Structure formats: structure tokens, C-alpha cells
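Subject: complex prediction, re-run

Hi both,

The earlier run crashed halfway through, so I resubmitted it with identical inputs.
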Amino acid sequence: MTKQDIQFDQAGKLRHFLTIEGLPRQTIIDILDNAENFCTVGARTVKKVPLLRGYTIVNLFFEPSTRTRTTFELAAKRLSADVLNININTSSTSKGESLLDMLRNLEAMHCDMFVVRHNQSGAAHFIAEHVAPHISVINAGDGSHAHPTQGMLDVFTIRKHKPDFTQLRVAIVGDIKHSRVARSEIHALNILGVPEIRAVGPHTLIPREAASLGVHVFHDMREGIKDVDVIMMLRLQRERMQGAMLPSEAEYFMQYGLTREKLALAKPDAIVMHPGPINRGVEIESVVADGPQSVILEQVTNGIAVRMAIMSMVLGRKQEA
Amino acid sequence: MTKQDIQFDQAGKLRHFLTIEGLPRQTIIDILDNAENFCTVGARTVKKVPLLRGYTIVNLFFEPSTRTRTTFELAAKRLSADVLNININTSSTSKGESLLDMLRNLEAMHCDMFVVRHNQSGAAHFIAEHVAPHISVINAGDGSHAHPTQGMLDVFTIRKHKPDFTQLRVAIVGDIKHSRVARSEIHALNILGVPEIRAVGPHTLIPREAASLGVHVFHDMREGIKDVDVIMMLRLQRERMQGAMLPSEAEYFMQYGLTREKLALAKPDAIVMHPGPINRGVEIESVVADGPQSVILEQVTNGIAVRMAIMSMVLGRKQEA
Amino acid sequence: MTKQDIQFDQAGKLRHFLTIEGLPRQTIIDILDNAENFCTVGARTVKKVPLLRGYTIVNLFFEPSTRTRTTFELAAKRLSADVLNININTSSTSKGESLLDMLRNLEAMHCDMFVVRHNQSGAAHFIAEHVAPHISVINAGDGSHAHPTQGMLDVFTIRKHKPDFTQLRVAIVGDIKHSRVARSEIHALNILGVPEIRAVGPHTLIPREAASLGVHVFHDMREGIKDVDVIMMLRLQRERMQGAMLPSEAEYFMQYGLTREKLALAKPDAIVMHPGPINRGVEIESVVADGPQSVILEQVTNGIAVRMAIMSMVLGRKQEA
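This time it finished cleanly. Structure:
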């Protein structure tokens, strides 16, 4: 069984959501279409649907993240699920065995879904490989590997503005090497048929395998964003950086910060994206982050709808069965 | 736009609840009347009404307070709202810009209300000035400025026992200088037409602007509580005190602690109030705190009803619109 | 009034659940029968019943325990109650008076139930003695005294496999001296008429009063588990052990660890139980913990049903009244 296959149950329905890599194009389209319906829920006064009433969703966070936990908690509550927040100090569960015992216990309590955040790549896969058949696992970010719900909300946001993926030129700018967000975005864009994906950043922050991911590498930002339809800025993960990979924040901003002046090189109707939280004045100028081409806050809104869509699809499959 | 005006929307309806200062008398009466209805909810077996089902209320606590957070969380849950608790370490969000980005994100997630607690005066106002039009802000205590829901529950409790505010003599005793509770109480009592409000405490704990607040200052407690109808004791905020403002707890109790002996100087049917948590033996004698004239626990009960009233009024205005 | 009596209200109905000691056999049977009904709730897609809608249940944890808190939170949510989690640092509430003030406040907020966890024996009793008449208290573990919901889920699990308690031989193995679980188990088994209860462990870990509890003491494990129907392993509470009570983990495992080889001495259909979390390779061999005779995960599942039964019984008594 390959890593991708584990995401589907024996009837071929989506059971886990661990990575975008290897997903069929139709699955991605189904999630996007489904998320459209949930967009209207968030805008209503009563932002709640009873789809997952009586289900128990566990936020299993081995890496603290108020922001990401909040989006999953809101999505689950608006689907009427019960939510348990469990924060685990990885230092105390470093033994694989006790992690498995914890999973066995939560399964025995008839929990239905684990939303997993972990600083080690592969953690969500590992958990998905070991859970009982009635459990679904959602990867809420594992190490520098994948952050697939972020990747989905990004392509959802692009589709709202640029419906034909096969006509797009997309630039991803910044610390691609350490970014699970970038990896998930690249997979989604590739599967949806985007003909030109560019990775823009300094040598030290572009992974060696970039070419094999089907992206074009640019070290000069002005060249990299010339005539693109979409600019996806990445957060400069200062905590991930070790030692002398970068000269200084000021110089980084000079070279790779998105300014109005650089933005003028992209297409006039290009949209500007960022997974947040933004470092104003480091990777993006405030006037651009808050400007008319920015869709950064739309991404946040869409994130709830996309997560509701994925949660209801993987758990809803049992109701249909 | 003055600070008071921000609390009302363009249709003249209450949108935020930041301070009692400057509120029209009728608004205060409306809240009190509304809270009467919610009093019955708390006493029922099923303590829940569906008024705010599908709304998302965020407790945004920049200053930890289990007690206050609990009252708001209970009020929101009994209105059937979804509640998110977010505790923010102020040291990590000291930059105003990142606070605003956090607000923008919560707005984009279609949250409806921020209940804000902050150790800096003006924080709730600042947030209210910067939130999107669909958001309401409740001030759950900002620095030494205001704690308006506490002020409201205090006058609600007084009205239960002494319905005619225009006949009352009220003494507020203790650390008035550092007390947001005292400020909110004084504004509410003034607006409701209480003819005599007394501020009782040592020179170091009475603010210089006391006279301009319309209160009579007493440094001798026996004189200060003579013939009053209501005694509002304040908590001695030890953590707020710096250096040599007070001699010793024992001496403070001697001079300003409410004892049975001192209480005898007030009217025979005077009520004793305290916002809690009480320091027994420091600002109040246990036998008084637990005695027949104490309404301290009624204040707690009423606090839930008053908060339900305010929450449902500011959010309910959208349903009517 | 004796300690047992406090658990019943004046109409003779179960009001608190503090200890199994002294409970009438019929009360235990009623809880077990009730829990059978809730077993089916957990297995349904919609794992929720509206029995406690509008009730407020407070998890009052003076000792941190994500695991136990989770089981009570799930049980309460599946009964549709509102849940408040309050974690109290005992160092800051060491004064008995401020604990009582906190209780008074939660009562005044119309909370209905306190689920209490405390590292001091007798804490839940103390709280039950001091709460208002409308409050029920559940002991979720107090010091080394009692963990009665654990004891109930254990006998519930036994009954599923061995319905006739009067025919059973049960061995409890390990650190009985410091185990509130063991105490609660022994009381439950005695009341249900189990004719032979064995306490198996080293001299240092068997309490002197073991005989008075009606158990047979064995220091040799092979003798202790010979021909038993049920083996209840205890967790080696390393944090409770002081100094030189035990030689080494390896030697403990040699003498008292449950291995396949030792298990063969029990009856062929003996079941293996453990309250969790298990220390694999310390008190139990993995192959036994995960083997066909292990009912450890069934215990977890049953724990939710038993807690739902107890919660709905003590609070439901008010609806009938």
C-alpha cells in the first residue's frame, strides 16, 4: 500500500486527509465544490449545520498552534460536532508505544476523527496507519512535509478569482525548503493542471528536489514574479532557520519582500496570497498585504469552509455506507 | 466620534459594551429589564435558550482570569452560542500591528463577538475602533479603566433590594484609585440618579479626580458608611499596589475592613456588596461577608443574567435589522 | 451522618458519587444496569442523548489528568450537558476558605455538578459536605483513597464476561498500598459478593489493613493468580513511590509483571484488566496487554457508559422530584 492509497477506504471513498500528493484530480474538485456550499454557512447568522451532530472530533496537537487549532475547532463546531482539545507535550510521549496506547484509548472512547499537528514529518501518516477502521485522520501540519488543508484552501481561493487553472502562472516566494505549505500548494497546483509554477527564493531556501516537484526555480524575485497571475508569499519561519541561512531581515526584505514596486511586475490583476500570520515588513510590505490585490483574509474565511467540507466528507462517508 | 458614541451603531442600537460612562439612562434601564428575564433561565433545570445559536463568541483574554472568563463562557453557552477561549500572552503580541492582524483573522472566520480582558486601560476601545462592522466587543475589564458588566450587575443587584435609586446613599470602600470596578459603579450610580455616592479609603487610594466623578470623599470609614443604604467593598488588589501605599494588612483591616461593628453604623437594612474574590479578614470580616445583609453571592448569580442580557442585545440587534 | 450517608439525598436517591464503600448492593446493580443502556449510545453514529441538556457540569481538577478529564468531558457532552474545565493549582488555593468561596461562586452561577480530582484523600467528601443542596459531586480520584467511577467500570467490565460475581476468584496485582483504584475495586467486589479477592504484591506495597478489607494477601505472584477468573493489574505509580520501596523496574517485572507464562497459571478463560495508562514491560508484558484475554480497551469504552449512567442518575433525580 502506498502512502497515497491509505487516504481512501475500500469502497474508494476519502477516509483520511493527509497529503495532497497523489490525490486524483476529481477528489480535489469534489472538495472544492463541496466547500462552495459551506461558504454560505459562514455568512449566515446561524452559522451551524447539523451534519456531524453526535460525532467526536479530537484536536491532537503535538505542536502548539492556537491559530490552526481555532480554525479546526470552529469548523467542527459549525458542523455541530463535539470537540476535544488535547495538547501533548512531545517530550513526554516520545516513546512510540505510549502514543499508540493513547490512540487506542481515544478510539475506545468512540472518538471519530483525529486532527493531528506534529513537528515531525510523517506523524499524521503514522497515526493514520495505526488507527481503528472507524477513525479518520486529518493532517493539520506535519514537520516540513505537508499542510494539506492549507493547500486546499489556497487553490479554493485561487479558483474563486481565476477559475481556469490551465491558464495560470503561479509564483511561490520565500522559504520553500522548510515550508509544508509550499509542498502542499505545489502538489495541488500540479494536479489541477497549472502549467507554470515558479519557486522564488535564495539558494539556501529552495530545496534541491525543486525540479522534480515540477517547478521552475528563480533566485531573482523580479524575474520570478514577472507576468504571474498568482503570488503566494510564504511566512519566513524564523524558528525553523538555523544559523547563517539568511543575511538579515532587512536584506531579505530588499531581495524577496513583496513591495508595491515588485508587485507591478506581475499581471495587473494578479492576486497576492499568504498563509499567515504575516511578518509585515519582512516578507511583505503592509500596503501590499492590505491592498486591493491581496486575498489574504479571504484565505482565512475560505479555510473554515474547506475544513468543513473535508471533515464532513470523510465522516459523512460512514452515514452513506 | 467620542468614545461613548462608538458603543452604538448607526441605527442607534447598542453594538459594543465598553464603558458605562456616557450611556443614556434608558440604555441602562433596558439592560436591567432584560436581565430580569434571564434571571429565570438560570433557575430552571434546562438553563439554555436558543437566542444565539450559531453565533461564535471569542473570549480574548490578554490577562488571565478564570473567574471572569467562566462567567462569560457560561452566559454565552446558556445562550447556545459557540465559545472559543483564546489566551494571549501580551509579551508576544506587544506590537499593535500583530494584534490587529489577529483581529482581522478572527473576523475573517466569521466570529461575532470579542469579549476582551486586558491589563491596559483602553484596550477594548482600541479593539472596538478597529473591528469589522459585524463584530461586537464587550469589555471584560481593561486596566484600571472600566469593568462595565460588573458595574451593571452591581446596580442590577441594588435595584432588586432598593428599587428607587433616587433615594439612595451608597458608599464605595477601599482601593478606588486602582479599581475599574469602582469607576464603572460610580458611572452607573450617577446615571441612575443616586443622589449621594461616597468614596471611602485612605488618601493614597482615592484618585485625585474623585470630586469630578461626583463622589464625596471620606477618609474615615465610620463617617463614610454612616446611614448609607448600600456598602460596596472593593477587593484590595495587592498585585496592583506598589511600594509604600499601605501600612499593613492588619492596619488596613482596622481602618477600612468592614466589621459587624462598623456595619452597625449604616442603615439597618443596608446591603453589603463585593465584586469578589474576597480577601476575608483584609477588607471584610467573614461574619459580614456571610451575614444576612451580604448580597455577594446574589451578585455572582446576577452577573450571568446581566451578561446574557448584554450579549443577546448587542448581537440580537442584527437579527432585527 | 456517616461518610456513606452523604451520598444519598433525603428521599434516599443517589446524589453524590464519592466512594463505593458502604453503598447498598442494589445501588451498584442499578448503576450497572443503567450503564448497559448507555453502551449502545457510544456505538451509534449520533453518540448523543438530550438527558442533561441545559445542565452545567464543572470539571474541577486540582490534580492534572488529561485522560480522566477527557472521559468525564466526553460523558457529559454525550449527555448534552455544558462542560466547564477548571484547572486549579493547589498551591494557590491551599487555604480552605478560598476553596469554599470558589465553590460558593460556582454554585451561585447555577452549576449543577462538580467532578473533582484532588491529590488529597477526602477532598471530594469535603466538597460534598459543603456544597449547596442543588449540587452533585463526583469523585474523579482523591489521593490514595478512592476512584469510584473506575471501580464501577471495572465491575461493569467483569460482569460483561463473568455475570455471576458469587462464583469469582479475583486477583489485584501491584501497588495496592498507594492505589485508589484498588480500594474502589475491592469495595465493589466485596459488595457484589465475590467470595475470593486476592491482593498480590511485595510487602512494601500491600497496606497493613489489607486483611480488614476482606482480601487474601499473596507476595508470590504465581500463587496469587493461580486459578483466578480475573486479574486486575495496577499501574506502577512511579511518582507516588518514595525512596527504596522497590528494587528496580526489571526486578519488579520479573516478580510481579504479568507475562504469558504467569498468565497460564490463571483459569484458561481468565480476563486481564488494567486501569491504564499501562507501563509496558514494567507491570505487564505487551503480548498480554494486547492479547486475547485482555479487556483493557473494553474498560475504556465502558468507562464512558458508566460515567454517563452515574451523571444522569444523580442529576436526573431532580427531574423526577
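The mean pLDDT of chain A is 91.

- K.
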